[in-house]
């Protein structure tokens, strides 16, 4: 009978453990090295600017001097007529743009989810505006809305309808902003919804057909419940994008007429980079951050993400 030398066995086992630990540490270090650029970018260009902006919001920094003034900037926000108007305009824009973009995106996705003649052309036509630069798109629509020679007023003139001062009329300016934004975003929503529709199993529709369900009932009990995760995603991302709207407003109306289209980000730009009230603009930016963060947290906490669905 062979006698095992326990001391030698333990020594070999310890060597193997140490060797594996060294390998594990080496692998971990390589992993940390690979993800380091992302975290460096996160700290330098996101977290650090947020902290600096938070600090500046408690000062009266105006590019010449900087004194700590506590909460005065935040208190002044409630007496700032322009900021309150921008807050209202932002919520109005967000409501109509978000609701219409999701509804129209879903309608287009339902129409283009099946194979039809010219399917690729239609999908491409709807998606191209999304990849078009916002500046370029805004300049195109700026020409289209032009009162004298714009294509929209010329088209209305063919039917004997008098043209409008689209971007210079308080009644139409915000509608024009929403229209251009919808034109750009519908294609993106369409693509996301099509992906969601194609992930729904066909046997659910077949079973519903056997049970005598019509198209409306299929949509209500199968399509819509199974699209809730997609809808939730589009809602949260779209909400954040709506609160960040700036280029569109800046190019088309510059916040006019009579501040009818000014938004929170537009006001931040005006105060910080036009009037050089950096501290006051920083306070507005912090308020915007808090609004977006609060709404997003509420959405994730109470929003129905479709984990428990009844498709029966």
Structure description:
Helix 3 (81-111) runs antiparallel to helix 10. This protein is mostly helical. The protein is flat. The model is unreliable at 305-312 (pLDDT under 50). The protein has 13 helices and no strands.
For the largest beta-sheet, the strand count, sense and barrel status come to: none
Indicate the overall shape.
Answer: flat
Give the CATH topology of the largest domain. MetI-like fold
Average per-residue pLDDT, rounded, comes to 87
Reading off the top of the CATH hierarchy, the class of the largest domain is best stated as Mainly Alpha
CATH architectural grouping of the largest domain: Orthogonal Bundle
Number of helices: 13
**Uncertain segments of ≥5 residues (pLDDT<50)?**
305-312
CATH H-level superfamily title of the largest domain: MetI-like
Number of domains: 2
State the separation between the terminal residues, measured CA to CA.
69 Å
Secondary-structure element pattern, one letter each:
HHHHHHHHHHHHH
Q: Provide the structure class.
A: mainly alpha
How many β-strands, per DSSP?
Answer: 0
Helix content: over 70%
Radius of gyration: 28 Å
How much strand? under 5%
